[in-house]
Amino acid sequence: MTRDTAPTGDTAVGPRPSETSGSDFARLSRKIADAGLLGRRPGYYALRITAVAGLYVVGWAAVALVADSWWTLAAAAFLAVVFGQVALLAHDAAHRQVFRRRRASETSGRIAGAGIGMGYGWWQDKHTRHHAHPNHEELDPDLDPNLLVWSQDQARAAKGLPRLIGRWQAFLFFPLLTLEGFNLHVSSVKALANRSLKHRTLDGTLLFAHFAVYLAVLLWLLPPGMAIAFLAVHQGLFGVYLGSLFAPNHKGMPILTGDDRPDFLRRQVLTSRNVRGGRLTDIALGGLNHQIEHHLFPSMPSPNLRKARTIVRRHCEELGVDYVETGLITSYRHALTSLHRAGAPLRPARVPAQGGPADIGGDRVP
Asked: Using CA atoms, how far apart are residues 3 and 138, in angstroms rounded to an integer?
C-alpha cells in the first residue's frame, strides 16, 4: 500500500543479512544488490565535487570583485546555496557514498565540513544516532526539544524558550531557520568540550581556522557595516536552505516513543517521507528527497536512489507497508501542521461564545 499524503500526527549502515535470510529487509536488499545499485559512482562524484568546488571559488571571487558595493549581498546569497551543497557533499562522504574506505571518507568529510564551519565529528555522531533511531522521541537527537517541541508530551514538559516559542512555532519555523547556520557553528564549538568526541583537537583546529579566515576575508574586502550585512544574509540564507533540505524528510511523520521498536525496514520506511520531483529536485535536495531509500541503504550513492525508488516502493506495496511520497510544498505543509499540533498544549483554550464548542489549539472539542 502506498500513500501520497503524510499521516498526521545519517551515518549508520543498515543491516547486511545473509543470502539465506528471509526477513523483509533481506529480500529487499537482495533485489537492490541484484540491480547493481550499491556500487560506487566515482565519475559522478568527481564531476559533482569539481562543480561545487568551482562554484565555491567563483562565489568568493565575486565578493572580491564586487567588493565595496551592495551587490556583494547577491554574492552572499549565492554562497549560501553553495555552502548548502558543500554540506550535502559532507553528508554523502560521511555515509561512505563517495569512497569505500573509512579514512578517505572521513578526510573528505572533514575538508567539506571545514569549508562551511561545521564540526565533522559532532555532526557525524549526531547523524549516526538519527539514522539508528529515526523519529524516536527519546533517542533521535533531531527531536531534542532545544528550541522547538515535536510532540504534545514535549510541549507539556517544556520550560523557558521552547515553552514561549512552542505555542506559535509553526508560524515561526521558517524565520527561525535564519539562525540555523549560526546554530551549526555554535553546536560544533560546544561539542569540543565533550572529551569523548573523537579527533576533537583536529575538528577544533579546522573549525576556528574557518572562522578566522572567513572573518578576515570579510573585514579585508568590505567596510565593517557591509561585512556585517554580508554575514547576516549569507548565514541566514544558509540556515534557511539547510532547514529546507531536512524538514521534508521526517517532520510530520509518526513519532516513536518508549519501547516502540519496529523491524529495520518498517522503522526506516514508516518514519520517512519522499518528495516527488525531477532531476532539479535531486540536485537542490542532494538526493535527500529519496529519504526512504536513503534510510534503508545509507551508503548507496545518491544518484542511484531514484532507481532504487521503484524497487523499494513495489516491495512496500507487496508487504502492505505505507510508503509516503508527496510534493515539496505539501511536505512543508505537513511538517508545519505537525508543529502546530505539537504546540497545542501551550496555547490557551479559547472560551466559546454563547455556549459553542471550545477551540483548543485549533482542534474543535465539544
From this structure: 27
In the predicted model, residues of the chain with pLDDT beneath 50 are: 1-20, 355-366
Q: Round to whole Å and give the CA distance between 329 and 331.
A: 5
Whether 271 and 250 have beta carbons less than 8 Å apart is answered as yes
| H-only helix segments in 152-304 | 152-157, 160-166, 169-177, 180-191, 200-221, 224-250, 264-269, 279-285, 291-296
Cα separation, 159 vs 245, in Å, equals 28
CA distances from 210 to 119, 187, 217 (A): 11, 15, 11
Q: In this structure, are strands 323-326 and 274-275 parallel, antiparallel, or unpaired?
A: parallel
Enter the C-alpha cell of residue 32: 537492490
Please tell me the number of Cα atoms within 13 Å of 128 on its side-chain side: 11
pTM over 0.90: no
Name the residue with cell 521526517.
250
Please tell me the number of Cα atoms within 13 Å of 143 on its side-chain side: 30
Q: DSSP for 268-287?
A: HHTT--EE---HHHHHHHTT
Mean pLDDT, all residues of the chain? 90
Residue at grid coordinates 540555523: 180
Residues 172 and 242: their CA atoms lie apart, in Å, by 16
Residue 41's CB: how many other CB atoms inside 10 A? 16
- The amino acid that residue 41 corresponds to is R
* 249, 273 Cβ separation under 8 angstroms: yes
pLDDT, tens digit (0-9, with 9 covering 90-100), for 193-252: 999 998 999 999 999 999 999 999 999 999 999 999 999 999 999 999 999 998 889 999
Between CA 93 and CA 56 the distance in angstroms is: 18
